[in-house]
Amino acid sequence: MGINVALDGPSGAGKSTIAKKIAARMKYVYVDTGALYRSIAYYVISKGAQPGDKEAVVPLLPEINVSLAYVDGAQHVFLNDEDVSDKIRTPEISMGASAVSAIPEVREFLFGLQRDIAAKNDIIMDGRDIGTVVLPDADVKIFLTASAEERARRRFKELQEKGDPSTYEEVLADINQRDYNDTHREIAPLRKADDAIEVDSTEMGLDEVVEHIAGIIEEKAGKKRPPREKKERKPLLDFSGIEPVKRGKKLNPFRIFFYNLLRYIVLFCFKIKFNLKFEGKENVPKDGSNIFASNHRRMLDPVLIELQCRVPNSFMAKEELFQGNKIFVWLIKKFGAFPVQRGKGDTGALNLAIEKLEMGRNLVIFPEGTRSKDGTVGKGKTGVALIAAVAQCPVIPVGINYYGKAKIRQKIVVRYGKPISPEQLRITTPGPKELKLLRTTIMDSIKELVH
Ligand code: DC
Fold first, then answer.
1. pLDDT value for 234
2. Which site among 129, 169, 224, 289 is 20 to 30 Å from 65 CA-CA?
3. Which one of 18, 101, 191 would you pick to mutate in the ligand 1 pocket, going by the greatest count of ligand atoms within 8 A of its CB?
4. What average pLDDT does this structure show over 193-222?
């Protein structure tokens, strides 16, 4: 028996996109069970029957042969030897699939096929009842959700790209109707298995969700099947050669001039676009070699922090960001981003961070390591404390607050707190106790600035 990952959730939560990415990365087979129900609906409709009419649907089942095949890793669905993979992706078939899936005989008909595939392969299977009915013993169960509006927005965009004329309102109504059907049917209704981990993707980017879920799978499935080759143990962090940062180094004055010119232009534009306020500006040092530690909500955050800094900032960004679009990568590098491998004690990135401080730049860190979906401030990683303790640089806590919905003139308040100095806290060595104290002090200060 291979590793079985069950991924359930409502329509449009992004299950298939995410499952495909994870399957490609982990070399699992991706099984889209929705496609099976869609194929049945397609057949039923092509025969002129109503997908919700049990009396008409059940007699058609013996005529149906559904199978899955994989071409270059992509799932293709065959209905009586016809490849229907594309034909089943219309709003009419979506609604039809929701209707046929409420018929117990249809579920029974597809049950064996789904179990067979799962028994033979390492799979990630998406659907509505995978964790509850099809694979109740799955190694990992994820329940992926997002608000109905967000799901409708994503689906609407997809349909528009395909040239489908449906309006957003129609797509939202469809989603609501399918949610209702899928959760209220008598047999195998959509619900979270008791042992499933819920992931709400409403405010998460695609890559963020993939990383998060892949992390959960790696952790859980890794226990079942430990990696074949033992990974080399990372050496313990060694900062013996690193001296506290010498402050007062001057950056090139032309660079500072152009940086500030650009900063004022961006500030001006942002003031027009947003209802933008800064509090605690007096806490922002005029010179460089400071660390700004902030909560993280949106991609915009590094720019917002920078708008009050008179010398350019560098900022640590997750390494995945450097694997995307080349222009985007060039741009973020120009603005001082450098990659960090999250959760891996990336000493290279820590050294680089200290080098940047040494050069007289400021350093922006988001200690939570990821964007917060709901605005709460998490525990934070120790990296920020480690850099501050080793470099002996002050940390300026920052709270970025977005109020209301993202729209023109959205209210944004950026609060800068009083600098926290490792020296004043008598933190002179990066020992575990010292780092914990420093991290907690920093995170508590950030929390105070977020309200
Ligand atoms: O995931 P999808 O949108 O392609 O699914 C189409 C329909 O099939 C959906 O409305 C509910 C149904 N379905 C189900 O009942 N059980 C599954 N395991 C997968 C899909």
1. 40
2. 129
3. 101
4. 91
